[in-house]
Amino acid sequence: MLVESSRSRRTPPARQVIIASTLAAGLLAVVGVLVLTGGEPAEKVVAERFVRAWARGDFPAMQAELTGQDRREMPVRRFRNAYRAAATTATATAVAVGKVAQPRDGVVSVPMTVTTRVFGTVRGTLRLTFSGEGDDRHVNWKPNLVFPGLKVGERLERRTELPRRADILARDGTPLAQGEERAFPTDDVASSIVGELGAPPPERVSRLRELGYPKGATVGTSGLERVFEETLAGRPGGQLRAGRRVLAQTLPRPARPVRSSIDRAVQRAAVEAKGERLGGVAVVRPRTGEILALAGIAFSGLQPPGSTFKIVTLTGVLEADLASVNSTYPVETKTTIEGVELENANGESCGGTLLNSFAHSCNSVFAPLGARLGGERLVRTAEKFGFNMDVGIPGAATSTIPAAGEIGDDLAVGSTAIGQGRVQSTALQMAWVAATIAGLGRRPQLTLERGRTPRRTQVIDADVARLVRRMMEAVVREGTGRSAQIPGVRVAGKTGTAELKNTSQPACVPSPDPVVVTECPAAAPDDLTDTDAWFAAFAPANRPRVAVGVLLVQSGSGGDTAAPVARQALLAGLEATRP
After folding, report:
1. End of a domain among 259, 280, 300?
2. How confident is the model over 333-391, as pLDDT tens digits?
3. φ/ψ of residue 518, rounded to 5
4. Beta strand 219-220 with 197-198: parallel, antiparallel or unpaired?
5. Strands, DSSP E only, in 404-560?
6. What domain range is 12 assigned to?
7. Is the entire prediction scored with pTM above 0.70?
């Protein structure tokens, strides 16, 4: 009976095969899911990928985890912008992900931590829901997912305010600007360097919002106020809100006074030496890169540097071993390159040794030398001195030289080598060039903040720099820069007289800091004063303590007008840096 009963309940063989096949297929499917997900539920795996991509800022990878409908409604660019807008509102700088929880009622919770500039550390939980079957799971995206802790329908907002603005001090600790009204002494020292406050220009609005500035905040628009803006403003305070809920709040924190590198006596000397003329004077300490004075448009006015650029050309020629100090050249009034005559200043006849040719600023020697050096090596040498490089001072213009392939033929390279063509410089840049030679080829990092750790980079061979220094001394001792002589002090310098009417760009009048050009007046063809006067120098030549760069727009020759200005600035700088 038992045997019969057992047999009567047995599944037919054909049906056994079907059931076995079904079970095997199901088992394989389960095994497949486990292999694909590493033994974890698919929702958790997708959530892991989503938040890890968020932490590393990979928005395309995040967007790829969304449902097809959400991907269509939120293309990558729009998706990225939504998250960046939330990060800007929160002043977020980093996102950290906690342990992803197991799914519960179709929801995966992820604890997250957001580090912010203004609101400290903000913690919240991200809750993700999903669509799809099996391992084909995707995130159901909602706008509240742009920030952890937001609930559906809530919007991330902030309310911030700035603390009292910090004071600006001179090198000796005396105030240059202080208080909410930014009151400062009525002398030229403060007014010539402090700058002004006002509405931020459009290109700075995004950055200021990232820092937590409230809408409509007043900021530094020029001078030291602009340079030290982010320090002077302190840390904003306020509330980060999710709709009506407060996620985090902090109090505004004022900054300590900023002690600048500006020396009152040197600044006054630079301002007085420049006078009412349009131009700029920059004074730098070669060893530390500290800027002692900036008068006029010293770091914002771009003009062709004329023969002060021969410091760069000479350096390149010596490094390329194309000439030595004693190399000799014909004494003549002009040279011809590509069938075009290039004259010496005022038709002067000069030449002889390389040293003498540099001392007397012979275009007839240096234009052909520049052509021999070639565009690539000339540009490379200029960039060692800081051309085409951010100076590191907010609001400062970048001095430029075109790429080698854009300069042109030998005539264009030769013209560039004598500081004409399309090369453009500021007075601060030429002070930087002089400071680099003064430091035996070590280019200092420029700073307007006193006490910053000095940083210098060896960019020119020290032996080459010594030779250039020797020839710059000859310029002041017996050449075109004799007006910069100081009794008992060895001065190394280089004059420059940029002929504006012959440059490839019209002579333009630079505006006050920080914009460069406002109008371009037509020059009279017979106007002999249609030249910029330049001078770059350092002293004492044997143990340099101060370097200067001078630009006087449309003011004649460098030797006659810029060198005496440089002398006054050097004297003040030497006194201020006396051991």
Report:
1. 259
2. 999 999 999 998 888 899 999 999 999 999 999 999 999 999 999 999 999 999 999 99
3. -125, -35
4. antiparallel
5. 442-444, 456-458, 492-499, 509-510, 517-519, 531-539, 546-552
6. 1-39
7. yes
